[in-house]
């Protein structure tokens, strides 16, 4: 079901942009393979005011995860990426209201990230409860499809990791296969995260809802040797 457009959305987006805590990247050419050829790299030191490592959360939702991560790890900079303006405004407003300086919300489709993110500049990628697109015909839209994994390879620094969490077992099994076929090594695979003894987990809005229903949370870490 399509989300209803938020009241005063354009005004709220502009207010967030004026603080520097929200970037809205609109691509005129919707053919992403052609559009990404012309780079418009973000200047991370200028954006964050320091040279600290940068991590991406792709599919940041309303920003709960990125805000808690930013508070736990002030020595890293976080780009909270979301394709929907209707959703990213919540993340940006949360970043602003909490006074977080090491996180910026970024409205951008994942297909275009390599246009804006310099090669080998990202120290970690988080994929939290991405849409599973359950129909097989939509598999290429999944954020762990090999099409996206090839993009992530270009962005990650050597040895950097991708951390994925999902409540959807079929999507998780698909992701395991895609990572493996794309040359990633997998570790810390969990079929029930909350019963695994894993420490340091940051719950998202969806994760809390699913775990309260008794559903297992699946998690993995992937990296390139």
Care to describe what's here?
The chain is an alpha/beta fold and 225 residues long. The chain has one domain (25-223): 3-Layer(aba) Sandwich (Rossmann fold). 34% of the residues lie in helices and 22% in strands. The protein contains 9 helices and 8 strands. The protein has an 8-stranded mixed β-sheet, with helices on both faces. Helix 1 packs across helix 5. The longest helix is centred in the middle third of the chain and has 13 residues, at 85-97. The chain starts with 8 loop residues before the first helix and ends with a strand.
Radius of gyration: 17 Å
Number of domains: 1
Q: Quote the beta fraction.
A: 15-25%
Strand order within the widest beta sheet: 1-4-3-2-5-6-8-7
By CATH, the superfamily comes out as Vaccinia Virus protein VP39
CATH fold naming: Rossmann fold
One letter per element, helices H and strands E, the order comes to HEHHEHEHEHEHEHEHE
Approximately how much helix is present in the residues? 25-40%
Mean pLDDT: 95
Q: Given this structure, which CATH class is correct? A: Alpha Beta
Basic shape: globular
SS field, number of helical segments: 9
Structural class: alpha/beta
Strand element count: 8
Provide the CATH architecture. 3-Layer(aba) Sandwich
């Amino acid at each position: 079901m399509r989300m209803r457009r938020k009241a005063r959305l354009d005004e709220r987006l502009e207010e967030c942009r004026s603080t520097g805590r929200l970037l809205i990247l609109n691509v005129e050419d919707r053919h992403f393979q052609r559009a990404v050829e012309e780079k418009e790299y973000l200047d991370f030191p200028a954006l964050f005011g320091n040279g600290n490592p940068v991590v991406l959360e792709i599919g940041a939702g309303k920003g709960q995860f990125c805000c808690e991560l930013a508070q736990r790890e002030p020595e890293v900079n976080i780009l909270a990426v979301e394709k929907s303006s209707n959703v990213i405004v919540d993340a940006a407003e949360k970043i602003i209201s909490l006074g977080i300086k090491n996180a910026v919300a970024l409205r951008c489709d994942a297909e275009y990230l390599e246009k804006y993110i310099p090669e080998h500049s990202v120290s970690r990628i988080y994929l939290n409860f991405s849409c599973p697109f359950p129909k097989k015909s939509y598999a290429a839209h999944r954020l762990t499809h090999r099409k996206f994994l090839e993009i992530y390879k270009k962005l990650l620094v050597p040895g950097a990791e991708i951390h994925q969490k999902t409540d959807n077992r079929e999507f998780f099994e698909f992701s395991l296969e895609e990572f493996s076929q794309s040359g990633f090594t997998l570790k810390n695979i969990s079929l029930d995260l909350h019963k695994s003894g894993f420490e340091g987990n940051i719950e998202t809005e969806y994760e809390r809802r699913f775990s309260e229903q008794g559903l297992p949370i699946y998690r993995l870490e992937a990296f390139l040797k």
